[in-house]
Amino acid sequence: MVAAAAEMQGMSPYEAARERNVQENKRKMEALNLRHLSAVIKEAPKTPSPLKPKRRRIIEEAVVVPSPPRRSRRLAQLPEVKYAEIAPHSADRMTRSPRKPADLIYLATRGTISMKARLEATRKAEELESQLDPEIPSFVKAMLHSHVVRGFWLGLPSHFCDTYMPKQDAIITLLDEKDEEFDTNYLAYKKGLSGGWAGFALCHGIQDGDAAVFQLIKPTTFKVYIIRAASDDGSELDE
């Protein structure tokens, strides 16, 4: 009957089917009396749900009882030392040690070093190397700013390290012309001298532009000969 009425109103079959579903749902809602139930719920008084009473936490001020300091068994029988009573007088406090001679060498300057002076120092070093025993491995190293002023990292020739130097990190001893020994750290993967080289360079006043001959007299010992570079005014620093 609804379908016939829908068709009479010019509805499509889809719209007619939807209209039938709407009417069917209305009949079901009336059968369940949902409208009356929703009205009852709206008119019902709102009562708050019962909540548990909150308990207020009373925090009392804590009393800290100082405990005796923990001491080892070896010191337990000794009297306690009160450092405030034995604080040194201002006049007796440790003072800074005076600057070492090596530091004075580090701060010393000798003027500008020309390229000609650098090459001349390297030439003299190579000449000195030619007079050494050819059976003992050696090489010449021209000193740069990074070797003796900033960083104090001395890279060694790669081919020399591959042939003669240890394959792992080791302590390399530097022997100066007075047979004084200085230990340095050799880093195998970087092929150079790190810790200890700064002390050797400062103690001997090696500066930018100088040259040195390194002679490997033992597997981990270099004999070092230092050649000074002259400054532009013709002066040359000696040890």
* Average predicted confidence as pLDDT: 77
Gross CATH architecture of the domain at 112-227: Beta Barrel
CATH hierarchy, class of the domain at 112-227: Mainly Beta
In which order are the strands of the major sheet placed?
Answer: 1-6-7-3-4-5-2
Number of alpha- plus pi-helical segments:
9
Rg (C-alpha, Å):
47 Å
Q: Give the full name of the CATH homologous superfamily of the domain at 112-227.
A: DNA-binding pseudobarrel domain
Enter the CATH topology name of the domain at 112-227: At1g16640 B3 domain
Strand fraction equals: 15-25%
Task: Give a topology summary.
Elements: H1 2-8, H2 13-32, H3 34-43, H4 73-76, H5 101-107, H6 115-130, E1 138-142, H7 145-148, E2 154-155, H8 158-164, E3 170-175, E4 181-187, E5 192-193, H9 197-203, E6 211-218, E7 221-227
Parallel strand pairs: 3-7
Antiparallel strand pairs: 1-6, 2-5, 3-4, 4-5, 6-7
Helix pairs in contact: 1-2
Give a quick summary of the entry:
By secondary structure, this protein is an alpha+beta fold. Helix content is 34%, strand content 15%. It has a domain of 116 residues: DNA-binding pseudobarrel domain (At1g16640 B3 domain).
Molecular structure report:
- There is one protein chain.
- The chain has about 240 residues and is of the alpha+beta class.
- The chain has a domain at about 110-225: Beta Barrel (At1g16640 B3 domain).
- It is about 35% helix and about 15% strand.
- The protein is built from 9 helices and 7 strands, in the order ααααααβαβαβββαββ.
- The chain has helices spanning about 1-10, 15-30, 35-45, 75, 100-105, 115-130, 145-150, 160-165, 195-205; strands spanning about 140, 155, 170-175, 180-185, 190-195, 210-220, 220-225.
- A 7-stranded mixed sheet has the order 1-6-7-3-4-5-2, sandwiched between helices.
- Strand 3 (about 170-175) and strand 4 (about 180-185) form a beta hairpin.
- The chain is elongated, with a radius of gyration of 47 Å.
- Keywords: DNA-binding, Nucleus, Transcription, Transcription regulation.
- Its main location: nucleus.
- One of its GO terms (molecular function) is DNA binding.
